[in-house]
Amino acid sequence: MRAISSVFKDIFENYQKDYEGPFDSSKTSYSLFKELDEHIKEMVNSDDNLETHWSVGKGNWTQVPWFAVRDRRTKSSAQKGIGIVGLFKKDMSGLYLCIAQGTTQPLKDYGKKGGEEFLLEQAEKVRDIVKYLKDKQFKLDNEIDLKATGGVALTYKPSVCVHKYMSAGYDFNGQFIEDLLDLVKAYKDVVAKNLDFTSENNLKKNHWVIACGINSNQWDNFKDNNLIAIGWDSLGDLSKFKSKQEIFEKLKDERSENDPDPRNDALCCYDFVNSMKVNDIVFVKKGTSKLVAYGKIIGDYKHDENLSEYRNIRSVEWINIKENDIDPITGKTLTNFNKYPDTVEKYLKLMANDNNKDLEFNELKDTFFSEEFFNNIIDTLKVKKNIILQGPPGTGKTFISKKIAERITGKKENIFSIQFHQSYSYEEFVVGYKPNSEGNFALQKGSLIQVCERAKQNENENFVMFIDEINRANISKVFGELLSLIENDKRGPENAVKILYSENDINFYIPSNLYFICAMNTADRSLKMVDYALRRRFSFFEFKPEFDKPEFKNFLKDKNVNAKTIDRIVNNISKVNQQISDDNFELGDGYCIGHSYFCPKGNSSDSFGDQWYEQIIEYEIKPLINEYYFDKPDQAAELIDTLYD
Fold first, then answer.
1. Beta carbons of 230 and 310 less than 8 angstroms apart
2. Which of 6, 335, 378, 489 is the most buried (most CB within 10 A)?
3. 180 close to 86: Cβ distance less than 8 angstroms
């Protein structure tokens, strides 16, 4: 191998030229980054847990190419987690060698503002662990300038924990190697602390305990108006405060020196606005030894100046209202009890609705799907009326959709299924002129009107319209003027509108007992993204492969899959999915291989071994991989070889 300084020199000189032309894996820059990766591998190969990655883009040259070193045990990737990253400036004048976090998943989960806050908080934790790097001339901040003008590179800055800038003339044969090894040591210290750098744990449903006012004087308000509320009205709209510290300082200014420290009050105000989420569970307490209600948060934070007191509110759907004595707990106004899982479980059993105590979730019998996630979808659908299940092929979207529909309706006759496609139109979905049996064109009702009429005739029953592949059609054209009517607060005759082609100007509305369950494939490149107009009217649920779940292994075992074959499925597919997930410039998590491919469909007496597994690989997974990497046959072949290990 030639000197690494020569590789860096050629990258700095060639990348800009290649960037200006079409993407091509035969270009010089592509080969140079492969060569650089070999050098980095050699430097870190003494640790079996470390693996290297690099990217110059997929399909298009990226403005900021990069190389990375990650600990495979952390399941880190370009989308989530943490690693050592070399970020080249767009103008190729130098690079930043950093410890940095994956940005895609936090930004996707929390939005731009929330995602950046999450990344900045995690970065501070890292700096506290590796502050000794300051003595090695690393900067403990995120003040980098990549000169990027667009793309994912614009999200990198808040993810950076520590960095050192290296110009094109840097000593890459000596000092760079020393710097990289210093970062490897620091990175290991970070990994050893076992910090959670994914946002997944932060997305679990929280369980809150809230007081209902001073001496419980707000309980009737909570119960009658389906809400929870906190005071501190003198602060005004709590969402204007950017941090707990700001609230603390404001409360401190308002109080005398003899008043109690306002730290807990500041935390309560901050959590009520920022930490509490829709679908979180809330228990209402009276005093410190009695629970009086159990419900689900269904609304975002609001500050209502029209209220005389307790103006900071959130809407709640009460699941059960009954008094129960409990062991004395904290007297604080608001507490997140997720850190006390045994207590949460006890409260859930204690406050369960008596009518539902013996309810068996037969829909999930013989599956490995999370009951908590399933119930979360059900609860959201009841409130929102419209949901979309999205994910890669083979993750059980259609299967679970049917289970959800059965739970909502209670009878299969009330479930209507259709599939959108590129030619699907308003005339098919709503109403329009179509050929009849006599060869003439006649006005005919579409699927939506037929379902709505059934639902209106049976107001005491629930109905579901399941739409598969919803993003295959032109959504705005298919729904037309009825798009707004699917919103949960636009249902009913008071929101009726006149529709195209209607006879006698009949007003049309969507009844409140009709629910929309839709499925969306994230891996089909021919599909359009769902536009904002539709997106804001639906709640979205992400479906992912479940190979790492112990329940999946148990499911296969119960289906008579050979134990060695089970290990082969889990290990091989997980390796391939990790590589697909890391390709976040063109592929990413939305293209991973789903577990449903490996759910046996034969008789319970059948046995499933390596021949069954290899048939699935050859005729279902292999064509999929070749499609993903149609312009990179070598990479496709490498992944396919992994599947046959």
1. yes
2. 335
3. no
